[in-house]
Amino acid sequence: ECTSYLGPAGFDAVQVSPPTEHVLGPMWYTRYQPVSYKLESRSGTEQEFIYMVRECRKAGVAILVDAVINHMAGPTVLWPPEDEKKECGGEGAKHADCFGWSGTPFGSRLFEHSNVPYTREEFHHYQDNTLSNCAF
Question: Which Gene3D superfamilies match (predicted)?
Answer without folding.
Answer: Glycosidases
